Amino acid sequence: MIGIIFGSSMGNTEEAAKFLSENLGLENELLNVSDCDADKINSFDKLILGTSTWGSGDLQDDWDAFDFEGLELGGKTVAVFGMGDSESYSDEFCNAMGKLYDHVVKQGGKVVGSVSTDGYSFDSSESVRDGKFVGLALDADNESDQTEPRILAWIEQIKPNFA
Ligand SMILES: Cc1cc2nc3c(=O)[nH]c(=O)nc-3n(C[C@H](O)[C@H](O)[C@H](O)COP(=O)(O)O)c2cc1C
Q1: Which tens digit of pLDDT belongs to each residue from 2-22?
Q2: Distance 53 CA to ligand 1 centre (A)
Q3: Model pTM?
Q4: Rounded CA separation 124/32 (Å)
Q5: Ligand 1: distance of its center to the CA of 126 in Å?
């Protein structure tokens, strides 16, 4: 079973996660990370994890409080997505997605779904590695009209890894 787990303070990441869950076209379970412990997340075969960025490039609060050390992701396929604000936080756009990625890699996960930075406008991001976002970057504050098309394109990209 695929688990889609999100952390969201104002509902933007939650809304994106719901759209992803409804349009993935594969059976999945959608959960708020505030309702999950590491054992729950470990129970899924494959995972899609989403976080918004708060503070100054920090993980969303519920992810920030999460026990990443308890995650056992050895060899599991994981994709990550992030929600941020590329105008007001152009120097740390979607940084939390990079932090989430680092936790997943540290716990043994195999991350798929990197995305080109083409079409985004920002100065710097911890979620860019080797010139690409480590997952899907979203910006509901400035580019809300792009959220659904970006998710749909990403689904086509990652689906073979999750089927
Ligand atoms: C106080 C505050 C700090 C923020 N810090 C960042 C940041 O460092 N980087 C970023 O990309 N977005 C930042 N944001 C934007 C949020 O990530 C964005 O509004 C997001 O859509 C919130 O998603 P959520 O409702 O799922 O939590 C910040 C927003 C606020 C209000």
Answers
A1: 999 999 999 999 999 999 999
A2: 5
A3: 0.98
A4: 28
A5: 14
Residue nearest to atom 30 of ligand 1 (CA): 54
Supply the residue whose CA is at minimum distance from atom 1 of ligand 1: 55
Other CB atoms within a 10 A radius of the CB of residue 154 amount to 20
Instruction: With beta carbons less than 8 A apart as the criterion, state whether 76 and 70 touch.
Output: no
Tokens standing for residue 152: 């749909």
Distance 160 CA to ligand 1 centre (A): 31
pLDDT tens track for 70-113: 999 999 999 999 999 999 999 999 999 999 999 999 999 999 99
Q: Which two tokens stand for residue 20?
A: 């992803």
Q: Residue 113 maps to which CATH number?
A: 3.40.50.360
Domain region containing 29: 2-162
Give me the number of domains the chain comprises. 1
